[in-house]
Amino acid sequence: YFLIFAVMRLTKPTLFTNIPVTCEERDLPGNLFNQLMKDDTSSVKRAETLMLGETLTLPQNFGNIFLGETFSSYISVHNDSNQVVKDILVKADLQTSSQRLNLSASSAAVTELKPDCCIDDVIHHEVKEIGTHILVCAVSYTTQTGEKMYFRKFFKFQVLKPLDVKTKFYNAETDEVFLEAQIQNITTSPMFMEKVSLEPSMMYNVAELNTVDTAGESESTFGSRTYLQPMDTRQYLYCLKPKQEFAEKAGVIKGVTVIGKLDIVWKTNLGERGRLQTSQLQRMAPGYGDVRLSLETIPDTVNLEEPFDITCKITNCSERTMDLVLEMCNTNSIHWCGVSGRQLGKLHPSSSLHLALTLLSSVQGLQSVSGLRLTDTFLKRTYEYDDIAQVCVVSSEVKQS
């Protein structure tokens, strides 16, 4: 071959780790080891025994490549002969388990390459798959005698998973959905978590619950240092609420619902950036049957034997029109105020209505709101609702004091 081909991965340097060797002054070496560490240019002054270093070290091997990082490589083709070669074409492809990507900056051939001259190229690729990757570098050229030459080189490397992401969904009594995302650093080096956000689907608005207000300022619940140490796990919490135009549609709260996707950005080593975006997260929404009853407003604490108001929301989740009748049944502690058996009228599919109801409690303590019955006169079917919510009942004297 007339040409020599070289490929080198471009990575950031690392901080040199100084291994301390010391002993007590009464030992045979005396203060010799301590003095050597103080004179070592790679150690931090007055912190020689802490394995800290001030010197940058060039990479000694290929290193690890993690999903979401950018793979950079330097490609050089050198004419090692004493002849001029022509029509040099350098091509770099990245072969993954699912696709083949062209990473060459230019597809045009170089007209000629003189002796001891080089063709240089730098390629970049954001890694989006885990597993085996093969960098295929090919060079074709023509000699002075008109002979066409061609050769290839293969460089295999593994892409590892940097984070372990687990999600949990919690369905509230309302249409709100709480998402807990557990993110674990499964690499061997600390990560600076630059951003962890949830991009909701078109049906939801999202509120991040990862900050607290202190003296009028918002602070992260993880503190000012957002570093995630190796094998450490951090929990992020989000609250999703359907947008107003979807909140009244019963179809939003039935079946499998697309919630959104997590967007995670981090930095490692000397500012190397990585980014991961999960696929669309889906949760199995709870089934509410044909009719759903939920509480819109209810007080936390009420006085004993004093009336209090609640607001209920009734939604027709079926595909047919209902003619509903409301019945209120007293329990041992909860007593409903008003007329039982009143007509609510027709309720069309995916429609809702709000009811303002009054009740009182004759027993102190944490009492359960129960005893509502809805009857569909068309099918003669009754839906029972007990343990709808809880309310704390206290004596009026206790509340005033």
UniProtKB/TrEMBL annotation:
Q: Which residues form the Trafficking protein particle complex subunit 13 N-terminal domain?
A: 6-159
Q: Name one GO cellular component term.
A: TRAPPIII protein complex
Kindly list the residue ranges recorded as spanning the membrane: none
Q: Which residues form the Trafficking protein particle complex subunit 13 C-terminal domain?
A: 299-393
According to the entry, every stretch annotated as the Trafficking protein particle complex subunit 13 middle domain falls at 163-286
Task: Note one Pfam family from the annotation.
Answer: TRAPPC13_M
Q: Which family does it belong to?
A: Belongs to the TRAPPC13 family.
Quaternary structure (record): Part of the multisubunit TRAPP (transport protein particle) complex.
Question: What protein name does the entry list?
Answer: Trafficking protein particle complex subunit 13
Q: Which organism is it from?
A: Himantopus himantopus
Task: Name the gene for this chain.
Answer: Trappc13
